[in-house]
Amino acid sequence: MTNWAYDSEKEIIIDRTDRFHYCFSMATITFDTLKFVTHLKESGLAEKQAVAITEAFREAHSDAEVATRRDVEELRLEMKAIEARHEVKLAETKSELIRWVVGAGFFQTALITALLLKLIK
Questions:
Q1: From CA 44, how far away is CA 46, in angstroms rounded?
Q2: 55 contacts 23 by C-beta, under 8 angstroms
Q3: What would you measure as the largest C-alpha separation in the chain, in angstroms?
Q4: Cβ contacts of residue 55 below 8 Å, gap of 6+?
Q5: What predicted TM-score, i.e. pTM, was given to this entire model?
Q6: In the predicted structure, residue 72 carries a pLDDT above the cut 90
């Protein structure tokens, strides 16, 4: 018989010595401490060691930030919006560069024409 009881309302696992082991969720990843402890005990670890490893694992991962599918989708949409803005800026820069090149070409043509007319006279 197991020494553990799971309280689904509070999402905690309680053993007979009143130690609390929380089931916690990292974004969409759920970590079941009862299952983890049971697996460690079945692997040959003493209960005290299994509980200590589980608690250490839970504490180490409690602050972990994992992206959800929604987060990834929001990021994808942001990237598409940024890409669209960059395409607009690139088109504006391209048209401005074309204007400068055409303007410089007209200026060179006018300058050469003026110099040739002055040389002819």
A1: 7
A2: no
A3: 115
A4: 21
A5: 0.43
A6: no
Q: Which two tokens stand for residue 62?
A: 């409690």
What are the tens digits of pLDDT across the range 88-112? 999 999 999 999 999 999 999 999 9
Q: Is 2 left (phi over 0), alpha (psi -120 to 50) or beta?
A: beta
Query: What stretch of H or E contains 84?
Result: helix 69-120
Do the Cβ atoms of 93 and 85 come closer than 8 Å? no
CB 11 within 8 A of CB 23: yes
Residues in the chain: 121
| Spatial separation of the C-alpha atoms in residues 47 and 38, rounded to whole Å | 9
Residue 92: what pLDDT?
Answer: 94
Look up tokens 């024409």; give the residue.
Answer: 113
Within 10 angstroms of residue 50's Cβ, the number of other Cβ atoms is 20
3-state helix, strand, coil in the chain (%, to 5): 65, 15, 20
CB of 31 closer than 8 Å to CB of 61:
yes
Q: Tell me: the pLDDT tens digits for 33-63?
A: 788 888 888 989 888 888 888 888 877 776 6
